[in-house]
Amino acid sequence: MRKVLNWNNMKKIYKKLLISAGIIAVFILIVLSPFHGWARGHVNYITATEDHPLNCFSCHLYNQKTGFIPKLINADYYSPYNLAISGKGDELYIVAEESGELLVADTRKGKVTRKIKVGDKPHSVTCDKNGDFAFVSNQWSDFVSVIDLEKYSVVREIKTGNGPAGLALSPDEKYLYVVNSYSNDVSLINLENGKEWKRFSAGNNPSGIGMNPAKTSLFVTSRRALLAPYGDPVECELTEIEEAGKRIAGRMDIKSVYMLENIEFTPAGDLALIPMIRPKNLIPSIQVEGGFIMTNGITIIEQKENGRTIQLLLDEPNSYYADPFDIAITPDGKRAFVSHAGVDQISAIDLDSLRSFINSHTTEELEYYSNHLGTSCHFVIRRIPTGANPKGMAVSPDGSKLYVAEHLEDRIGVINTGSLETEGSIDLGGPRRITVARKGRRLLNNSKGTFQNQYTCFTCHPEGHEDGLVYNMASKDMGRNLANTQSLRDISETAPYKWNGKNHTIYKQDGLRFSTVLTRNEPFSYEELDALVAYIVTGIPYPPNLVYNRTGELNAMQLRGKALYERTIDKMGNEIPEKQRCITCHPPPYFTNRKFEDVGSLIASDDSMLFDTPHLNNIYASPPYLHHGLALSLEEIWTVYAHKDTHGRVNDLTKIELNELMEYLKSLGDPEFYRDEEKILRAKANPR
Amino acid sequence: MKKNSKTRYIVLLSLLILVVVAAISLPRLFKSEKRALSGESRQSGGIDLSEYPTLESFERAERDDIISSYSDTMPVYGNWKSYTMKDGLPSDKCYTVRIDGDRVLVGTHDGLAVLEKGKWRTYTTEDGLAHNGVVSIDVSALTGDVWLATLGGLNRWSGGKFETFTQFNSGMPNDLVYNVFCYGKDIWVATGGGAGVYDTNKKDWKIFTEMNAPMHEPWTYALTAGDGKVWIAAWGGGVIEYNMQTEQFRDYVDPDGFMEIDLLPDDGLIHDITTATAYSDSILWVSTYFGMSRYDGKNWNGYFDHDSGLAGNFINFVRAEGPVVFVCSDKGLSSFNGKTWITYKKNDEKPDGKALVYRGARVVKEIPLTPSISHNYVIGVDAEDDVLWVATSSGVSRGERIN
Known about the structure:
The complex is a heterodimer.
Chain A: H1 7-31, H2 35-47, H3 56-60, H4 68-73, E1 80-85, E2 91-96, E3 101-106, E4 111-117, E5 122-127, E6 133-138, E7 143-148, E8 153-159, E9 164-169, E10 175-180, E11 185-190, E12 195-201, E13 204-211, E14 217-224, E15 235-242, E16 247-255, E17 264-265, E18 271-279, E19 294-302, E20 309-313, E21 324-329, E22 335-340, E23 345-350, H5 351-359, H6 363-369, E24 380-385, E25 390-395, E26 401-406, E27 411-416, E28 421-427, H7 436-444, H8 457-460, E29 470-471, E30 483-484, H9 506-510, H10 512-519, H11 526-538, H12 556-566, H13 582-585, E31 596-597, E32 611-612, H14 634-639, H15 655-667, H16 675-685
Antiparallel strand pairs in A: 1-2, 2-3, 3-4, 5-6, 6-7, 7-8, 9-10, 10-11, 11-12, 13-14, 14-15, 15-16, 17-18, 18-19, 19-20, 21-22, 22-23, 23-24, 25-26, 26-27, 27-28, 29-30, 31-32
Chain B: H1 2-37, H2 39-44, H3 55-70, E1 77-83, E2 94-100, E3 103-108, E4 111-116, E5 119-123, E6 134-139, E7 146-150, E8 153-158, E9 161-165, E10 177-183, E11 186-191, E12 194-199, E13 204-208, E14 220-226, E15 229-234, E16 238-243, E17 248-252, E18 274-280, E19 283-288, E20 291-295, E21 300-303, E22 315-321, E23 324-329, E24 332-336, E25 340-346, E26 353-359, E27 362-369, E28 378-384, E29 387-392, E30 395-401
Antiparallel strand pairs in B: 1-30, 2-3, 3-4, 4-5, 6-7, 7-8, 8-9, 10-11, 11-12, 12-13, 14-15, 15-16, 16-17, 18-19, 19-20, 20-21, 22-23, 23-24, 24-25, 25-26, 26-27, 28-29, 29-30
């Protein structure tokens, strides 16, 4: 058959030729002196080392965010995040986070049979008892897709709060509970009319939801700790909703934990189990070898009157099991499985052994064991390896199989719950090649770079954002200079990095110093560092600001706030000094001039220093604020920590005007919205 | 001479009329007084007490008869039981009371007191209250969350946990929160620095002061909402009506502008210094320190202690439930349905008191109450089903409907 030389084929050939020519040209330039000398210096500056391989592609190819090249070198993966199984066990419903689809897989054939387009960044899926409908939460679209499982098509989209994540149907299946992870609440949807009926406030960054076997209560877990000044114990809220009355029944603050992603009950209903991380942010990070940054395990809540809340680690003395995410329990209540997204493993727990352990110890002893690395051997019966970054899990109705969403493997692992061996996998059909950015994403989500796998970059930067904690970093001045974790979202153009701005590139930030200060392990290899930087630069965008700026059009209040933000004259008619104008230090598109400033925020535990002006995109989603994290709300930046006009001119504003300014700040979203404003500002600054 | 005989005739005629009136009315008066005072006299009155096992049951039956005759559909409350510090309240000074299902929430000068399963429990700043002076309480019908207005901020009390909103950590207008009102997802507050509304979904605040609303000054005392509108009792500014759909304001002020007198009756709001608003059955009730106003959307009516059954003109608070408004004054509690007044007063230095049934300004019946409300300085009230709770400057009282 004659091959048709059409335009598409021609394009491919041209592309290949162009790339080849480019590679040859760059190679020639590199080997030629004096260009080589300049390139060496340039790479040394960027990487803050003297021996990083001279590879122009690392930055100039893999770090491109837009245009033709990124499309060429990157690939579209599925990235399965959560999954559910049909009542008969014949179909798996897999949430493909990256492609925005619900994939239907035939468990007998072991392959994907359907792909249904849903919203942006789908998070969870649940099905009704009859298997008529599936419900998919779309975290970046603020709606739930209702899918007819007979027609395999979306039949309805139900509006929710911001960042819908965990889902649960009421026992009568007339209502759907939707956990809104960004707006910190739970929507109760009336499925008859498809409308939100009421909304309950929940913890900070709520995520999972589970109903007890008696069907009387639902429990909502939270990922982030409750906002509190540095020094107060870390506490994470577990919110209880009374199902019959559909009202809040209780709020349990679980001490010393965060990242409570999901919850599961034993079939007998005697225990609730929640994967957890115990962060040690309040003490200097010098004793990493003693588990003094993160430990990982499960919170167990006894479901009886005066039931205890117990925390047990799944870690071992020389091996940690970072980023526990999901928990699944077999229908016979014998075994529980916890996915450790940071170490690519599943812990299999013998629940009778666990019961025996907690029943044979006093509350005081169990409290002691909550920090003990040597207890998991009493109830963990196997560590089962998986593909990259295991997340959601589902047990087959007969309890014989455990399905694991291998998030960064584009695969569903199938584990025999009897033998505890992996017996196969379901390939989702994603790209075979692993791109540089994908490799970087795997690295960011994996703990192999930290001491004994204690934690991952993801641990403190969940979803590439920040964990809301303030850390006491080990440095030469122990116990000084607290650091509020900063987001990694779209940071490529916001250098320098760190609050003190000492790292001028991401290479420097994540390179050798990172291993010295934080990971206490071998630094990333240069190849790994290239990949990590490529992912950070290209793969962590801002979620859409759907609450405060859905369309990009500002409302009247935000416009008034914008005018205050950009004003040059105060209310007394005096010109505001340039340094005291919001717009001076925080110009679009990133709302940072990337310069150093003192805004009067230094506290006694800080060295005398200037701070890198932080960027403000999606600032509404980043409490607490300021380098020390003491400002628990945007308002407090000015009402508590800059009441002498040290952080811009605000003291002449009324409360109404301050609220308008806050509304404008909350409206700030993706930098791409502000490119035009940036051009206008530049033109004003340089009229020529 | 002619003049003298005419005068004699008038005097004689007057005496005759007096004798006739006395002959008719005196036996009735004696009868009712006796019936109300003692069982012995009742026996002598020829009533068979064997039907009534106790004196109290007889009194109740008698009272029901009287109440049903004189009060139309107006509920009348009796069997009062009062609670003070001796019973477990943190303070006798009670600012507000709210019935929340099986429990009762009382805002006092020294914390929040909760009566549940017969026991009082106190919550203070140590538990997370913004301030111990709790002056207003409302419960969200949607979520069951309790919202507490305090003299140092606003609290959401949900699932046993207090969350605090202040003028520093949020967009709330001012920490001096006088009143809170839940309306769907919105939480409205009246503060010393303006009225505010918190959107619990969007988590942001809007503020209304003299800068952006037709107020005399930012000081607001109370508010209520219904039918898509909010009515703000603005100090010195009358009532500000805010339409939530159009986001437009309308103000109601005293048309005569006099501070001392209401020059023309029923011409509008009786005074610009308003203390509370209540809305129910399409009727807006507005209290002031100089009397009360009623607005049906078309006409205003004014009520004072001298021309109605109002216990006193100095009114702290009003709450409307269905067609009935409960009015908390410095001289007792009044209730009114547009036709009949019932005013509760405690007798000086005694635990007992009375309920006075009025038609207009005329007392048509006086119902003795033993015991009565705990104090005549009434600050808060709440009614649900057949129970009425009253917060006073000296304890809180619970009454049951007796008609």
